[in-house]
Here is the input.
Amino acid sequence: MLAMLVLGGLAGCLDNDPLPGGGDTFIAMQADFAEFSTWSNTDVAQQDTGHVAGDRTVYVNALPAADATSFPVGTMIVKTIDWSGGTDIHAMVKRGGDYNPDGALGWEWFELTLSGDTPVIKWRGEAPPAGEQYQQIPGMSQDSGVTVTGDCNTCHGAEAGANDYVHTIPL
Here is the structure.
């Protein structure tokens, strides 16, 4: 009986509302990305050098209100890039609170892979783990020898800080 109560309590702790505005903080789970390909999306031109060159689509689980000055906690943005080496999938999630205080405040970064049609979290955090930075990736720009140093916070902070660190969806 005690085991059932503990399991029932844990199930409640693992329940996660993936919609924006659900509270002060939001921790995205792998299941929250399951239907990202059905979210609102737009094809975007290659306008950054932080990712490989290729066709890119940006998906968002919910757009901010027209008068918003920041994205609500719970916003999930996924960018797919189809290129000659496959498909890269990166995401940013508005976790909120004081998460990532030295970078894109409130945002958590992700790289996803696909297992069949199911998105799987490869890594997550305030920055990519060692060895996952965007440096000398073939096809990154017209000059394939370009080296980009830094991480997600570097580009999103320098180039999109005034738009709550988001490049492709204007506030």
Q: What stands out?
A: Residues 18-163 form one domain. The chain has a mean pLDDT of 78. The two ends are 51 Å apart (CA to CA). DSSP finds two helices and six strands in the chain.
